[in-house]
Amino acid sequence: MVAMAGGLTPEMEPTPSMLDVRVWHGAERGEFRHYRVPRRDSQTVLDVVTHIQRHLDPTLSYRFACRVGMCGSCAMTVNGVARWTCRTHVDQVTSDGRLEIAPLAHLPVVRDLVTDMRPFFDKWAKAKGRFQGGSTRSDPVARVLPDTPERRAVDAAIECIGCGVCYASCDVVGWLPDYLGPAALNRAWTLVNDVRDVSRLERLRAVAEAGGCLSCHSHTSCSERCPKKIAPTAGISGLKRACARAALGGEL
Amino acid sequence: MTPARRDTLFWLAQRTSAAVLALCLLVHLAVIIYAVRSGLTAAEILGRTRGNAPLAAFYGVFVIAVSVHAPLGLRAILSEWTLWRSRSQTWAMAALAVLLFGLGMRAVWAVVQ
Lengths: 252, 113
Description:
The complex is a heterodimer of chains A (252) and B (113).
Chain A: E1 2-3, E2 18-26, E3 30-38, H1 45-56, E4 75-78, E5 81-84, H2 90-93, E6 98-102, E7 109-111, E8 114-115, H3 118-126, H4 149-157, H5 165-169, H6 171-175, H7 182-192, H8 200-208, H9 221-225, H10 232-248
Parallel strand pairs in A: 2-6
Antiparallel strand pairs in A: 1-3, 2-3, 4-5, 4-6, 7-8
Helix pairs in contact in A: 3-7, 4-7, 7-8, 7-10, 8-10
Chain B: H1 3-35, H2 42-49, H3 53-81, H4 87-112
Helix pairs in contact in B: 1-3, 3-4
């Protein structure tokens, strides 16, 4: 059932009932291995990986948890594009039955399809992605009206699940290792618009320095690929405007 | 000045100068097309430009925009594509700005004096 790296043997040519799958094995150095996986109705890419791990190669390492697009842990590179695999149907990404599955780009590979997400989340911390309130438990609950511009800006960006698809899709992250990336900046944008937060200026300083929002080229790959349909590019543009206003006002 | 404020003002200056350059280029191209309709000689050019204060002001603005825009853009490219991100890079870009300004103004002066 399992064939090692190399050319396809004749019996491995894709058929309508079988998928021809190449999966990365190893860490930074490694190889793609070939597998044939039965094709099923409504089959997701995560189903394919799970089939390989359970029936063909128990050594395969990959990460998943919820399987319903909530936890953000199963993102991988599928046929060259970063995607959440639990909600990506095979039919969406291949018409000829061939799949190539690799770990996310721009992150260290721990093993096989598992990446080390620490650099990704360290940048959330560097972008001051933690809410800093100014009230105590004795104070009344803050009232944030849903139709204010700030609340609408937060609503548009708050559903991020931290999957890393945007980070892996961003050209600037590849060129500039210090670049905070779309997800961290999107998080900062939600907090800049949170009227309860008291660290606004500190956060703007953090995202205005080298590697911050001003490094974004507005390629919009992050917005194009985000599985939650968030537009980090719009948030980053908002951060640029906020930083510019703060710089002109002498606040930064 | 904090690095955050400096970088943001640089970014703002680059975007603003880009907008100025876009307008200047349109005017520059339109003037070229208009001026060469029936052929053009150096004597004709100088005949129009000498003592022409509006032309000097326009191309002076053009040169200033170039002197601001090009070094800041090159600075961003160098920071992304090379490891030269130190203070010396900023000084080198400042020197480039002065050089571009000097050469540009010299050219403007040469045709309007």
